[in-house]
């Protein structure tokens, strides 16, 4: 049972662990630019994820794979300049950590030094253990990511729910325990059965943040552009749209164009 939200002056990795101990749910949203991040931070969101989903919603790519480390640093630095309270977690992009733990560390160091982010997030479990350990040994906080891992989309071939079968579910639990044991401060579980996600959250002491993983976890994350309705083609079951900005913005732009073409804008009070 969640308790009333405490006002935290600044969210840290320790804050999140304490929130889990107290039964306080953790709110997390993505952001990729200064203006949006400033609004998200002022709304009291606990964690801002500078996600590699920027590849989709900001750059128009079909997958998260094309976005580069330099581009992630650009987005993260823009977000960090807006923040007063939220913890900023930055995705390590595809190709920057999987093959070589030394490269993983170099990538994480660049993100921390050049963007000012507070932590990094990596997709995978046992397969990337050495990369995670090397980053952690350098004093950089790491958030894990299990279940549906979008950077492996061509391996899976689909964005369907993961870990429905016993073998994959057992591996997910083992990977979550491993990530906790080696020192991750939290784990994102994406698109897995709710019962499994709750089981993981109850087995480990670090926070489990869900996206399409039910309500039995310690917090939730959504992609900002999806939840405010700026995107409208993406309609998974787990998505709740809090606004319909696609329609509102399109209507506003249409009206502006009409006003310009008719000579109505600017009127006398809107000029010098």
TrEMBL record:
Coiled coil: none annotated. Its cofactor is Mg(2+). It holds the Pfam family Pantoate_transf. The active site is at 190 (proton acceptor). It comes from the Bacteria. It catalyses: (6R)-5,10-methylene-5,6,7,8-tetrahydrofolate + 3-methyl-2-oxobutanoate + H2O = 2-dehydropantoate + (6S)-5,6,7,8-tetrahydrofolate. The keyword Transmembrane does not apply. Catalyzes the reversible reaction in which hydroxymethyl group from 5,10-methylenetetrahydrofolate is transferred onto alpha-ketoisovalerate to form ketopantoate. 3-methyl-2-oxobutanoate binds at residues 52-53, 91, 121. Its EC number is 2.1.2.11. The lineage of its organism: Bacteria, Pseudomonadati, Bacteroidota, Flavobacteriia, Flavobacteriales. InterPro entries: Pantoate_hydroxy_MeTrfase (IPR003700), Pyrv/PenolPyrv_kinase-like_dom (IPR015813), Pyrv_kinase-like_dom_sf (IPR040442). Mg(2+) binds at residues 52, 91, 123. This is 3-methyl-2-oxobutanoate hydroxymethyltransferase. It is found in: Cytoplasm.
